[in-house]
Amino acid sequence: MLVTALLVLSSAACGDDGGKDSGASATTDAPLGTGECPPTDGSATRTIDFAKAPTGCIDPTKSYTATFDTSEGSFTVALDTERTPKTVDNFVALSRWKYYDGTRIFRTEADTGIAQGGSPHTQGADDPGPGYTIPDEGGTFTTDDYGPGAIAMARSDEPDGASAQFFLLSGEGGRYLGDKDQIGPTAGTFVVFGNVTEGLDVVKQITDLQGGIDQTGMGVPGKDITIDKVTIEEA
C-alpha cells in the first residue's frame, strides 16, 4: 500500500489496523476510545496491543516533550498540543506504555531526510499497529510545516488512517510532502505534531545512514538503528 511519498502506512486493511478491536472508522469529531491511560511515573508494563484506544491521557493546557534515546544518540521533540492535541495524546499514551521502546527505525532516506519508525510487531511498514486508528486533525499542512525537525504521523491512504508509525524530517528534502503538484491529494495530510528542539544533528545522522532501497522503493538503513526508549516530560 506504500504509494508516491512512501509515507502511507501499510496496514492489514485500510481503516482496520488488524488489532484486537479496531471498531468503526474514526471521524475527526469522534473520541479516540476508552482505553486505560498509562501511569506517568514510568512504571507501566510494556503494552503493544490494545482492545481500546487510550485517550484523555494528557492535559492539553500543559506542554509535553518526548526524548528519544537511540543507538545513534538522543534528541528531544516539543509536542504540539495546541494544533494536534488528539495526536499528541495518542503519542504520549503509547510512549508511556513503552510501545516504542526497543523498536527500530526501519526507513532512512538521505535525500528526503526521512526517518520512519514505530513498528514493534514487525519492525517494518507492514506493522499492524496498536489495534486502532486515530482521527486526522490540524487541517491541511503545507510545505512550511514539513521542514527540518518536524515529526509527523505516517498513515494509510484512508482518512483517519494513522495509528502509531511516525516519521521525522532532518532537512529541507521533506518539503514536497506539502506540495500537491508533486505528490497529489496526499500532500498535506500527514499530521505534523511536533518539532525537534534538541539533537537535530542526531536525526540527520540517522537519515544519512541509508544503506539501500527495498523492493517498494523505500530507503532502508545500512545498519540497525534502535529506539531504546522514549521519555515523556510534562510541564
SSE layout and pairings?
Blueprint: E1 64-70, E2 73-79, H1 85-96, E3 103-109, E4 114-117, E5 150-153, E6 166-169, H2 180-183, E7 192-198, H3 200-207, E8 210-213, E9 219-221, E10 226-234
Antiparallel strand pairs: 1-2, 1-10, 2-7, 3-4, 3-10, 4-6, 5-6, 5-7, 8-9
Please describe what this structure looks like.
- This protein is an alpha+beta fold.
- The protein has one domain: Beta Barrel (Cyclophilin), CATH 2.40.100.10.
- 10% of the residues lie in helices and 24% in strands.
- It has three helices and ten strands, in the order E-E-H-E-E-E-E-H-E-H-E-E-E.
- The chain has helices at 85-96, 180-183, 200-207, and strands at residues 64-70, 73-79, 103-109, 114-117, 150-153, 166-169, 192-198, 210-213, 219-221, 226-234.
- The strands form two sheets. An eight-stranded antiparallel beta barrel has the order 1-2-7-5-6-4-3-10.
- A hairpin with a 4-residue loop joins strand 3 and strand 4 (114-117).
- The protein is globular, with a radius of gyration of 16 Å.
- Mean pLDDT is 88; it is low at 1-7 and 9-31.
Distinct helical segment count? 3
SSE string: EEHEEEEHEHEEE
The percent range for strand residues is: 15-25%
Shape summary: globular
Write down how many β-strands occur, each being a DSSP E stretch of 2 or more residues. Answer: 10
What name is given to the CATH topology? Answer: Cyclophilin
CATH-scheme architecture: Beta Barrel
Q: Which runs of at least 5 residues are low in confidence (pLDDT < 50)? A: 1-7, 9-31
Give the CA-CA distance, first to last residue: 39 Å
**Structural class determined from secondary elements:** alpha+beta
CATH superfamily caption: Cyclophilin-like
